[in-house]
Amino acid sequence: MLFVGTGQDEKEIKKYVDKLELNDKVVFCGKVTDRNLLAEYYARSDLFLFPSMYDASSIVQIEAASQSTPTLFLKDSATSCNIKDNINGYISNNDYKEYGNRIIEIMNNEKEYKKVCENTFNDIYITWDKSVEEVYKSYLELLDKRK
Fold it and tell me: Sign of dihedral through CA atoms 31, 43, 49, 57?
């Protein structure tokens, strides 16, 4: 498991990993600002875990999708709003046992997983150029309505 980034719970997570004797299975990558290295981490990953109820908009799900890496979100979180469960990503209830079981379920269904990976890239990934193009088009439509 790769932990990319830092946060207020990092020390506690490291202690817990040590307590469970999982140091040989968990890598703490720290803060990563190099976009190419970050893309490599996403490409190396089978699943991006994003168990947050509080992030309102997350670029990390788009970054993961750029490498066809699907994300597991929490149900009713703002970041899960454009996710169709088992289609272009995954959703779990906000319960740590259910979340863990959902990871196992996802990884045990290889055929569905491959399809979700493909849909993640096609549905969720958007380039900055495409995003700017869509916003520009929306502005033009709004200007036309004012006339």
Answer: positive
List the CATH number of the domain containing 51. 3.40.50.2000
Say if residue 44's pLDDT is above 80.
yes
Domain of 39, in residue numbers: 32-146
Instruction: Specify if 10 maps to a domain.
Output: no
Answer yes or no: is 9 within a domain: no
How many domains is the chain built from?
Answer: 1
Using an 8 Å Cβ cutoff, are 2 and 41 in contact? yes
Q: What percent of the chain has pLDDT over 70?
A: 99
pTM equals: 0.83
Least confident span in 36-40, 90-94, 117-121, 134-138: 134-138
Q: Print burial letters for 43-70: b (CB count within 10 Å at least 16), e (below 16).
A: eebebbbbebeeeeebebbbbbbbbbbb
Gap between the Cα atoms of 105 and 26, Å rounded: 21
